[in-house]
Design a protein that fits this description.
With 94 residues, the chain is α+β, with helices and mostly antiparallel strands. It contains 2 helices and 5 strands.
Length: 94
């Protein structure tokens, strides 16, 4: 069963390659959605996938790329959007 998660990641998560790394991991796991920086310094991810993929993805989100310092990961179930791929949002917000 496919689920949708809205994920907010807090800590030193901007200017450390977080979005590009997130896309690479999402593509490896078959997770669809998007990742973007928030004005307050958080990273926001909308992710869709099966339970196993999302569990592995969330586990990675708790670590992040090499230079990130993740202090918290919040995730909430959301409505399925049926994304076709995983995108990095450069600017602007959904």
């Amino acid at each position: 069963m496919i689920r949708h998660l809205d994920i907010t990641i807090k800590g030193k998560v901007q200017r450390v390659g977080f979005r590009a790394s997130t896309k690479a991991v999402a593509d490896q796991l078959g997770v669809k959605g998007h990742v973007q920086n928030e004005p307050n310094g958080d990273v926001f991810i909308a992710a869709e996938g099966d339970n196993i993929s999302l569990d592995m993805f969330l586990e990675w989100c708790g670590e992040g790329p090499e230079h990130a310092i993740v202090t918290s990961v919040e995730s909430n179930e959301g409505e399925l959007k049926n994304y076709r791929n995983f995108d990095v949002v450069k600017r602007g917000y959904f």
